[in-house]
Amino acid sequence: MDKRTEARSKADELLSRMTVAEKIGQLIQPFGWKCYEKQADGSIALTESFKEQIRSGAVGSLYGVLRADPWTEVTLDTGMTPEQGARAINEIQDYAMKHSRLGIPILFGEECSHGHMAIGATVFPVPLLLGSTWNVELYKEMCRAVALETRSQGGAATYSPVLDVVRDPRWGRTEECFGEDPYLIAEFGVAAVEGMQGDDLAAEDSIMVTLKHFAGYGSTEGGRNAQPAHMGLRELHEVDLLPFRKAVEAGARSVMTAYNEIDGIPCTSNPYLLNEVLRGDWGFDGFVITDCGALGLLVNGQNVAANGEEAVKLALEAGTDMEMSGEMYTKHLLSALEQGLLSEETLDKAVQRVLQLKFELGLFQKPPANPAKAAEVIGCEEHARLARQLAAEGIVLLKNDNQTLPLGKDIGKVAVIGPNANAPYNQLGDYTSPQADGDIATLLDGVCAALGGDRERVLYAPGCRIREEGRAGFATALDKARQADAIIVAVGGSSARDFGEGTIDLVTGASVVTENALSEMECGEGIDRMTLNLLGSQLELVQELKKLGKPLIVVYINGRPIAEPWIVDNADAIVEAWYPGQEGGHALADILFGDVNPSGKLTVSIPRHVGQLPVYYYKRRTRNKRYLEMDFEAQYPFGFGLSYTTFQYEGLTIEDAEQGTEDYAVAVAEVRNSGEAAGYEVVQLYVTDHAASVTRPLKSLKGFAKVWLEPGESKQVRFAIGREQLEFVDQRLQRVVEDGAFTITVGPSSREGLEAGLVIGVGGRLA
Predict the structure, then answer these.
(1) Tens of pLDDT along 459-484?
(2) 259-298 tens-digit pLDDT
(3) Which active-site residues does the annotation give?
(4) What domains are defined for the chain?
(5) Are 456 and 436 in contact (CB under 8 A)?
(6) Per the record, what are the reactions this protein catalyses (predicted)?
(7) Neighbours of 47 (CB within 10 A)
(8) Judging by beta carbons within 10 Å of its beta carbon (0-12, 13-18, 19+), is residue 656 exposed, middle or buried?
(9) Measured between alpha carbons, how far is residue 342 from residues 29, 134, 207, 307, 311 in Å?
(10) pLDDT tens digit string along 448-459?
(11) Strands 486-492 and 414-417
């Protein structure tokens, strides 16, 4: 009997002994930070209300026991160290197993989008940068590190990865996504499953992933969070569902529903999505959880239910098992059963799925947390080095006129200017815990370290703030910049919530805590924008710096693309750093001074103007009309990124597939480093289908490889072309490969490359 079958059998036996109240409790997930109070000695005291919930079997899971941020109101002072957090989890679990009638353990779920969201944990770059590495194996290594940190404290489930396909980057949650292409997102989704879950869910470095947000969440109207998504089922299957299907096939054990509706059906109560597709077509046998507060929207917001009882009936019958926050299930699930709106059989199916995963995770067998291990691995140096490498590989060089970069370390003085030059929280992204002083390396820190710690050679001034209009800091910034041999100006955005760090004095650059500090946040969950330009006085600051006639290097630190044509035309170099995490400043310095050759490539297209949206690269041939003022081509296309060396692509050929494989053909190209610096090149494979029974994209990414090349070195890159590369979803929602002509493109971006023809004949073989 395999482990999953054994877990299912144990869950069935346990379910047979449970009361209705206990069953309902297993589907309820309250906020974990509210179940205890931290004591002066670092221990915790469970609240009386939580103890009563445990004794009555009214809770089966806890969300965010270890989460710390302004929403939870858990601070560095009120939160717990890694070791204290692990002990707290053990105490909660011990109480649950000793004081509930059947001794059923708690499932602890935590946020881990780009690191365990607990005090002291490693803050990795946001997923938008992780996607820009195009390095799936390195990302998988990060996932193992995050799983180890989280599980050492007792977290057994994570609410990641985010597999939403970005269609409109005005959406504030763009930073949480890997990009705009479903194939690339799928590759990272599979890596997350393999990296975080591993081979054994009960292992000390394994946590259960929760794929989110299911589905179409990145395709809502106007780039506004949780708004309706307008698309047909065929496109839904071909684009938005692809990453989820691949991750489910890789073994993902949990899925989170999206807030949005698709064609008038909320995802949380959509039986087609959850029962027919997810469970029926894909064979998923894990459990489904709501996003926080989503069930309430069914009554107040989407209004597909007249009351709470109808809402929980719709959700459970559609296939939603657990409710994050637990508000609606707590208040209405029992009465829905008593009124006959819902059968106990339906309830049992949901409970069985949750119990099975608790057995698979090994929660019944051992203490959930290892305090000594938590103190050892959380925020360790090895993970910091990994964070720095990821940031360096995901930073994208967009422009480099006259080889402005890399800067020489023998340079006289460097001016480091801008609101994001020395703002730790501004480079971390959303879903981040409070940080102790000195834990985050800012751009200023990185430049100083790269120049041997000689602060006299580094001249710093913020110049302005992210969102505030005004020139109060300009004079100081310009004075510093005049003394420098090169200017690095860090502008962009912020997803920093109010961590109480105050604001920045525009003259001295010091942090100042004020009673009514101005929020700099312009990105993150719930922060959607109408435009993609720089806010406040940032562009004006860059324009004034340009007038000084010094080499001007613009560094963007932000969570969504920025469309500023003036900077494109006038900056000497442009570096897109996204939110690079705790080691971002060092990684940026590695790039700026040439210790690392930039290899990041864009995974979202950057428009020239917000009015061009959407500009995602896989446009259909029918999208061939221009606007009166401008065409619809992106300023920087998907897959684009410069290097300090040059790469030449030669001799693309299409070969017969090897005998014994199911592939149709193999694309083979030679890539040569024709420059003077060693570096990585991201080689990309695109497929164009010339005639099909439905309209197809002009081209689609279907493969990529990150290749290291020494100067003058050549390597042969081979891509198998099989069903996955050529199939599409037809009018009957079936994945098919049709005979016909294809163009295979291999190159450095979605906009350029070598081309070769491929014809698939009768029977699906190479003609």
Answers:
(1) 999 999 999 999 999 999 999 999 99
(2) 999 999 999 999 999 999 999 999 999 999 999 999 999 9
(3) 291
(4) 3-376 (3.20.20.300), 395-591 (3.40.50.1700), 647-764 (2.60.40.10)
(5) no
(6) Hydrolysis of terminal, non-reducing beta-D-glucosyl residues with release of beta-D-glucose
(7) 13
(8) exposed
(9) 20, 47, 32, 14, 11
(10) 999 999 889 999
(11) parallel
